[in-house]
Design goal:
Elements lengths: L3 E2 L9 E12 L8 E12 L3 E5 L6 H8 L7 E6 L2 E2 L7 E4 L11 H5 L10 H14 L15 H14 L4 E5 L7 H18 L2 E5 L3 H7 L2 E6 L4 E7 L11 H15 L3
Parallel strand pairs: 4-9, 4-10, 7-8, 8-9
Antiparallel strand pairs: 1-11, 2-3, 2-5, 5-6, 10-11
Helix pairs in contact: 3-4, 6-7
């Protein structure tokens, strides 16, 4: 099987996003000492690459995601986006969570265009961009619908379209398909790969589902816990579209699960 590496990171100059020695310590309370949640996490995602982040419960995947997105401050280390240090949320990152966070009082089109209202695009340009994004995710006919009338999968497609509307250089997704059924999840995975292929965006995708990671990723960053850190980076050398019944697919799934289940 190709490509299991201890250090597949790229030099920051070659990367769209680079995590450099990121650590996070939570101060203790009256009943205990400080907790080291993340320690010296370093890896990079190349421009246009699709990277998945997996690991056991408690390894700090979501904390690392929030640091990468500029939503949580690291105790040490830094995150670079196109060579510039991330110090807070930025429109250069499109962020999608498991919860859809759609505005129920806005239509699908208004939700998708929400971030564009603060851009320098003209109203006509904003409308054209919304139309483009709705077409990209297959929701043109639902542009005037409200979120309450949409399925969970459709709501997540709206969230992805909204994150892409401002044309970020990086798309960050944290368990985005975790709240939908298995059939919808596989459909959304295929659709996300189509979106990724057509836009060329750089993607960092957090998941607890190993098969999902093998389905989607160019590389899989496998975390270890206590404290959270990079255990291995696995290069997935299987041609897309990837079939779950394929022997190579199963081998990658088994290898990543073995890494997640390994001890300290």
């Amino acid at each position: 099987m190709a490509g299991v590496n201890g250090d597949s990171s790229l030099a920051p100059a070659e990367a769209s996003v680079a995590l450099d020695g990121v650590g996070k310590t939570y101060p203790g309370d009256g009943d205990g000492g400080a907790v080291r949640a993340l320690d010296d996490v370093s890896f990079s995602v190349a421009d246009g690459e699709f990277v998945c982040l997996v690991g056991p419960s408690g390894c700090g995947k979501t904390t690392l995601f929030r640091i990468a997105a500029g939503l949580t401050e690291a105790t040490d280390g830094r995150v670079l986006l196109d060579g510039t240090e991330v110090t807070g949320p930025t429109t250069d990152m499109g962020v999608v969570f498991q919860e859809y966070h759609l505005f129920p009082w806005l239509t699908v089109a208004e939700n998708v265009g929400f971030g564009l209202e603060r851009s320098d695009r003209s109203p006509a340009e904003q409308e054209a961009r919304v139309d483009e994004m709705l077409d990209l995710v297959g929701l043109t006919e639902f542009r005037d619908a409200y979120p309450k009338s949409l399925s969970g999968g459709m709501k997540q497609r709206v969230a992805i379209a909204r994150s892409l509307a401002v044309d970020p250089s990086l798309l960050l997704l944290d368990e985005p398909f975790g709240a939908v059924d298995a059939q919808t999840r596989e459909m959304l995975q295929r659709e996300l790969l189509d979106v990724w292929a057509s836009t060329g965006k750089t993607v960092l995708f957090v998941t607890h589902d190993v098969a999902e990671a093998v389905t989607l990723a160019d590389r899989i960053v496998v975390m270890a816990a206590d404290p959270g850190r990079v255990r291995e980076i696995v290069d997935v050398d299987v041609e897309r579209p990837r079939e779950r019944g394929n022997a190579a697919f199963a081998e990658y799934v088994g290898r990543v699960r073995e890494l997640i289940g390994a001890g300290p």
